[in-house]
Amino acid sequence: MLNRDGVELFYAEAGSGEPPVLLVHGWTCDHTAMAPLFTYFRRSHRVITVDLRGHGESDKPEQGYTMALFADDLAWMCGQLGVEKPIVIGHSMGGVIAVELAARYPDIPSAVVTLDSPIVPPKELIDRLAPVLAGFQTPAFRELQSQFIDSMFLPTDNQERKERIKAGMISTPEHVAVSAVSNIFADTASAAQACKVPLLVLAAAESLSDLPRLRALCPHVVTGQTVGAGHFHQLEVPEQINVMIERFLSVALLQ
């Protein structure tokens, strides 16, 4: 644990080798959502995986949970742990935070990888989610959250894994979940435009990003898509994820 101004922040690390890898989970999840990546990259890199504040084993204070606050936490943790020029890999909200980190602290990451994250989400996605997000502000939150989580999976995804993930997500305190989700889409375009490090955006079954607009804002972005997996594709098809990240890094970090 690290203590930042009275807030305990959980992390775990393993392996050695440069550049280090920093793993960032998504909304209402915890570090276990990045387990296959942690196992894979620890073979040749120092890997740090975190529980964002409000999640997992980290403290969950009553406060606003913004992407900027999460990014500030990560920057501070990198300083405390002596993590220099990490490859930052984020799933879902974690990818939004990773891009925010690159925008706010351009000297910290050497590259960013997002896994099914809404980086510059299309208007159609925002319009579709608007009633859901509005409902999250009502007493129907838990019911709507359950339905929202169900929509993240394909029928062919591992059902036992799905139920385990869902149980963990629902256990996250409501004040954390509601605040964080309301801030995910705040201003991703500005962060994407300010992200100057190599950026890989990997989609799952449906792209959560407006790719033409993303390319206009961030011309150096590299995009890809996994096959046969829902939103948690890093758990469902890690072999696809790993090989694409490895290829991206082998090219991007040589430039």
Major sheet summary line: 7 strands, mixed
Summed up, the helix count is: 11
Q: Supply the helix-strand structural class.
A: alpha/beta
Residue share in helix = 40-55%
CATH class: Alpha Beta
Q: What's the domain count?
A: 1
CATH architecture: 3-Layer(aba) Sandwich
Poorly predicted tracts of residues: none
CATH topology: Rossmann fold
- Strand/helix succession: EEEEHEHEHEHHHHHEHEHH
Q: What portion of the residues fall into strands of 2 or more residues? A: 5-15%
Shape category: globular
Number of strands: 9
CATH superfamily: Alpha/Beta hydrolase fold, catalytic domain
Mean pLDDT: 96
Q: Give the strand order, joined by hyphens, for the main sheet.
A: 3-5-4-6-7-8-9
Characterize the structure shown.
There is one protein chain. The chain has 255 residues and is of the alpha/beta class. It has one domain: Rossmann fold. Helix content is 44%, strand content 15%. The protein contains 11 helices and 9 strands. It has helices at 35-41, 67-81, 93-104, 123-135, 141-150, 159-170, 174-183, 188-194, 211-217, 233-236, 238-252, and strands spanning 2-4, 7-9, 11-14, 21-24, 47-50, 87-91, 111-115, 199-203, 222-225. The strands form 2 sheets. The chain has a 7-stranded mixed sheet, with helices on both faces. A two-stranded antiparallel sheet has the order 1-2. Helix 9 links the parallel strand 8 and strand 9. The longest helix is centred in the N-terminal third of the chain and has 15 residues, at 67-81. It is globular. The model has no long low-confidence stretch (mean pLDDT 96).
